[in-house]
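Margin note from the TA: students keep mixing up input and output lines. Inputs are the sequences; the output is the structure of the whole complex. Example:
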Amino acid sequence: MAPRTVAPFGPQHPVLPEPIQLKITYENEKVVDVVPALGYGHRGIEKACELNEYPKNIHLVERICGICSCIHGISYCETVERLWPLEVPPRAKYLRVIYSEMSRLHSHLLWLGLLCDALGFESMFMQFWRIREKVLDILEATSGHRVTQSISVVGGVRRDIDAEQEKTCIKVLQEVKKEAESLINVLASDPTVKARTVGKGVLTKEQAILLGINGPHLRASGVKEDSRMLGAQAYSELGFEPIVETAGDCYARALVRAREALQSIELQLEAFSKMPEGEIFERPKGRPPANEVTYRAEQPRGECFYYAKGNGTQHLERFRVRTPTFANIPSLLVMLPGCELADVPVIVLSIDPCISCTER
Amino acid sequence: MIENLKEITKDTLLQEVQKFADAKARFVTTVCSDLGDKLEVTYYFNYSPGVDMSAMRMVVDKNEEVPSISGIYLAAVLVENEMFEQYGLKVKGMAIDFGGLMLLAKDSPVLPMVKDKAAGGKGGE
């Protein structure tokens, strides 16, 4: 038997935007074992959500993660609204969809850029991030913030999108679509990209289900599952269908995210065309009653599970968030053993890890 | 209200979880809550492909030991470690045992999610 070496992958590594460590044991450049080490970004947000009054938690959950911020805020509000239950105005539902999809679009463009960066395809990395800036610009123009939009409140949304802003959004989204299509075509057909991703980190459909993975990671293994199918907000009125690939490798995961970025633009354009006029906020009456509810949202990285338990006071008895990466990390323990050491960065990146979300 | 919720005991836990695994259900997560002198543990599953969820709930004493389900669903290993270090739930036989140091550090508050512990300070002080 060849000698075995244990090497740390992270917590600081060029492909990791956030800190996580994988203790990798390898033998002749082949990975034989992996143990994750977490704990670099735990902030006790679930505990803080019990200590704060429930409206203040919106700002707290939006800071679970920068990229998923907007959907965390919206989902927290949707979860708390279910405790009453409380119906939000139809226009607010459409605005929540639009902001959620803008978040997904910029997150997927960010990830596609990071994938190119991990592969050494620097010019493509810059192109993806260049068009992502346009999405951040319209987020800033409509919500006032590029990153933490803080758009949702319990009972609706904080700001409307007026006719002039709507025109700007549609124009920018059409430009982004055209440019993204062109870049994705290059990415999907590039032989070097294929050489580094096809057949790497394969998970079969059966393995994916047993490992409890979710989001684009799960859909790339052929499972047609997406929390948007539940039809929350206005998704039931937009004819949403999940995007699925079957190969279960890094290339399939990239294709799912690339196609979802384009689908996200279509969903926003459709939402703009169908969005009704009217109020955007209905003030909740009283306090969240003693009740317990769950809610599932589709974050860019996958299904996010929320649990809230009210006790009739301004405080929640319990609030729990199970983020997508928390459920996707165990799949690395199956995908990495047996792979070449050089493939570790791309396989790790292929689950789109978000450590801020994972540790909360 | 939690839909499709079934009450179980720690003695029937593994048997009930195995039924979900046999039915090709996906493990979603576990939620632990402090009830004062007891802990409430709820396991959530999802039938893939699809959107329906089912849940199982057990209530155990704080000093009771419960079996790990990570032998059936490896995905449960992180949340079981989290319940141990945040609530003190004693889980026996976890596939990876972080020894109470998965999210917390040696000088972190002890059992921070337990209701009678203070929110901050070393050792829950």
